[in-house]
Amino acid sequence: xxxxxxxxxxxxxxxxxxxxxxxxxxxxxxxxxxxxxxxxxxxxxxxxxxxxxxxxxxxxxxxxxxxxxxxxxxxxxxxxxxxxxxxxxxxxxxxxxxxxxxxxxxxxxxxxxxxxxxxxxxxxxxxxxxxxxxxxxxxxxxxxxxxxxxxxxxxxxxxxxxxxxxxxxxxxxxxxxxxxxxxxxxxxxxxxxxxxxxxxxxxxxxxxxxxxxxxxxxxxxx
Length: 222
Known about the structure:
Layout: H1 9-18, H2 32-39, H3 50-60, H4 93-100, H5 105-128, E1 136-145, H6 152-160, E2 167-178, E3 181-191, H7 197-204, E4 211-221
Antiparallel strand pairs: 1-3, 1-4, 2-3
């Protein structure tokens, strides 16, 4: 289990593939698992690793509050897909001492059990409530590249790699804007209380090698 050495292209590729259909390392919210993996990466992944870059930019926005994120920070090798060698661990006593800072296995098990009970209780409370109407909106976005040499297929792949609870991507097309340049026009449906246009703009424009700007072309309540 693990991502391997996240200081190498091989480790980042494993992380990128792992995040292709996930927003976070574990669960549905930022946690200490994301902090542990984020801290192991020396700098932002390249735009080639678009899933890893999307995740990296999102977790970076939590740096001022990372100490308060839920969960218990575990050794890096305990996160990620199975069957990947963890080359980041050493046998030195100093590393063993650092590991002790995160608490014993018993403490980790107790914390994991407590989180499990909280999630079960929250789920039960949610199920007990009467169904409420979920407000949704249909949004049409204009995503503009830098020039006519921008790889529009890669640009669209980066945009669609953005995954959030309450976000569903729809159809897209390329629309000429002049001088041989085309913009990506892509639709999506969002749950209003979970996803906003500011969030979409922040994550889309983070792919700065491809995206010059993003505008909202149409916004309709549904």
